[in-house]
User: Fold this.
Amino acid sequence: MGKLKSVAELDSFRAKLLAAPARPVVRVCLGPGCLAQGADKVSRAFKAAIKKQKISADVKPLIKETGCHGFCSQGTLVNLSPFDLFYVQVKPADVPEIVDQTLRDGKVVERLLYGDNGNRYRSAAEVPFYKLQQKIILKNVGLIDPLDIEDALKAGAYRSLVKALTQKTTDKIIETVTIAGLRGRGGGGFPTGYKWRKAVENARDNPGPVYIVANGDEGDPGAFMDRAIMEGDPHAVLEGMAIGARAMGAEQGYLYVRAEYPFAVRTLNIAIEQARSLGLLGKNILGTGFNFDVQINRGAGAFVCGEETALLASIEGRVGEPVTRPPYPVEQGLWNRPTVINNVETWANVPHIIDHGGQWYSGVGVPHSTGTKIFSLVGKVKNSGLVEVPMGITLGAIVEEIGGGVPGKERFKAVQTGGPSGGIIPYELKELPPEELKLDKVGLQGRGFMTMELKNLPVDFDSLAQAGSIMGSGGMIVMDDRDCVVDVARYFLRFLEEESCGKCLPCRLGIKGMQEFLNNFSQGKGAPADIDALESLGRALVDGSLCGLGRTAPNPVLTSIRYFRDEYLAHIVDHHCPAGVCRDLITYRIDADICNGCTLCAKNCPQVCIMGAKKKLHTIDQDACIRCGVCMDVCPVDAVVVA
Amino acid sequence: MKTTRQDIETILEHYPRHPQHLINLLQDVQAEYSYISPEHLTLICDHVGVPVTQAWSVATFYKSFSLEPRGEHEIRVCLGTTCHLKGGQRLVEACERKLGVARGQTTDDLQFTLDTVNCLGSCALAPVVMIDEDYLGRATMRNLKKRLEKSDEGPD
Assistant:
């Protein structure tokens, strides 16, 4: 297929693709979760097994390696159509049976269906994990083969670009995005339409090139939404950028992808090449005279490059240090020209808005936070993976209904959103002062005086901000009773201390200072007054730092103090870590009733401080123990406990 | 380890002579040689036309770049939030003890480089360790040890 020279040629090409007779399709999820569980081997097994079968080419099942289907904890996921069957935890050894039973005879392999509470579910749509989700951006992720533009075209890719090129003026595109109420998905929640409008105005006052940038530098630990989009439906991002370019009059786009995502880079490169060869990127797109091309820039492992001004510096080949705003990138961005930088997920929303209209989009979610948001639901939750939900859904619905609750006998403690820039929100409120309890009101300002159970907190930009957290890019990490908030706050500070670029003093020294406090607390040192001093230092960082990294760095600490002050006090005053995590405040002990004397712990102890004869109770010499946790990890009967 | 390497000249030719391509070139050289030698750094500077001091600041700012040779096998222990909660830290320490090097360092025999990474995006399988291109999900000290011993014996 050569370049498509007109909209009519694209239409007829798409019609031809759709007219091809349907074949059975095996969709193997090759998302990061499934891949880590050997999905590539499952896919290879399918190809080999089908090759062996003597089936004529036109009914031979098609093996599609798709992007992330979402239900990572049940990987490897396999969807079979037209059977509408959803198999979970598929191993290469299961493949011959699937081929013989399902693909050849149309029978269900019962044991591979997802089961929960005695129910078995045939199709993915019935599974509780998917039921409450509303997939708009992820609609094609997990469905199409991301390395095949024809598959994307069949699913409707570039239809919105055609609409933007033929039916809409640039003003109209921006108006549609504004009506939709789309807000930046990278964390800040800045209104996208407004940003675009500003760029157009600035370019009008100061003629010259305008640049489009997609921020795929997804650095928040525990977040992999953008990765799933880039690897699962790359054309959605490219199409969104092209529509934005049309609206802003840009001809060059940059896609900045995080260093740790080599698969995303590979997928996007292939997608860009395929789009160019069909004439959907490049000069004179579809004969409309519109020129637009995209270049990929790989990140080089710096978290701060997620900040827009640092990212732009990195694209220009410089050290990724942020600069003061204003001027904002829409005024002076790349090479001092107006530049619109949006998150990958934001760009992926654009084709859907153009396709269905701004009104439709603003009807999804809640006022001021429209549309859906993708979260990576991970941590101490039964069903972990990638979920797309309408904005405004409650925290409880995500964690309990979609996530299926906490595995094991522990209780939910908190949810961490927004990564190192976000907060730790307690799931159930503890020690509420009764006179402050007004259940009908949302009023989360002020320390400790909340008037609603936070599991009913609506998940949208403004409610999360009120609770002291941020939406962030969408990481949602569930914590249970065995997770210590002091430890988590300390973890984020360590992360940020490493990632701070060091340009401004409040961030460079402030984070170190905060770390000292927390290191002390975790060792049971310090005084209760130190908590106030830590808060005050945190607020200084919020006020004084140059960029978002420093300004939001204290969030995990400040929210955890606000909601879990008693846990801080337990460390400082009682020298006790309630969750049993902080190393200097715990001891490991071997339970005499459980230990079977297998000697594994003694063999693996790096301090050689576990004594005991074979088949006899083992004991730990507490004076020599460094509390490395090896014994607990290797014990086959869980006899090692934290005291 | 790769047996045939792209010539440094070939890598340089991929990019026009413009300071914009400094990071791209450093990345390609890093990928090809697994580190950036002083000679290569100078050649890159000459090509894109930036002073060595500037390239040095870029190469030391970004974590992807190494100015020292790295080991044949790269072990990257994920310390994303979920991996942290599920004991990633203890895995790093176990690796440090096993290999006798601290995080960020390479063993004397140039077999292993131990590194930590801030999230591999496979959080549902935490804790995760990456050994070269392979993921080890739900890693424990036991299965990690086995996996390391296998790498030491050579390719599987």
